[in-house]
Write a structure and sequence with these properties.
It contains two helices and six strands, in the order βαβαββββ. It is an alpha+beta fold.
């Protein structure tokens, strides 16, 4: 089974990586911590010390259209916070 992993590059995530050596990823909801750890170690070649995950709930959305008010909800997704070893970094922009 193949899982997806995408880095989250926001201001808050950048501050976490600079201060605590912790990187944020958006991962498949089915992936567990062991699979996430293996995937990050293979992709980026770093030693993962800790993996924390949380499920981010979907937000309610609404918009006004010609036919009236449309209501919906975005999908929920899983976020993984990866702590890497001291002195190691992950470069998200290396393969651009």
């Amino acid at each position: 089974m193949e899982f997806t992993i995408e880095p989250i590059v926001t201001e808050a995530a950048t501050q976490l990586s600079e201060k605590l050596n912790r990187y944020t990823f958006r991962v498949s909801p089915e992936a567990n911590k062991f699979q996430i750890k293996d995937m990050v170690e293979k992709l980026y070649g770093v030693k993962v010390l800790n993996v924390n995950t949380c499920v981010v709930r979907g937000k309610n959305k609404s918009r006004y259209t010609k036919s009236g008010l449309l209501r919906g909800k975005t999908d929920r997704w899983k976020k993984a916070l990866i702590t890497v070893g001291e002195g190691e970094t992950i470069d998200f922009y290396s393969n651009i």
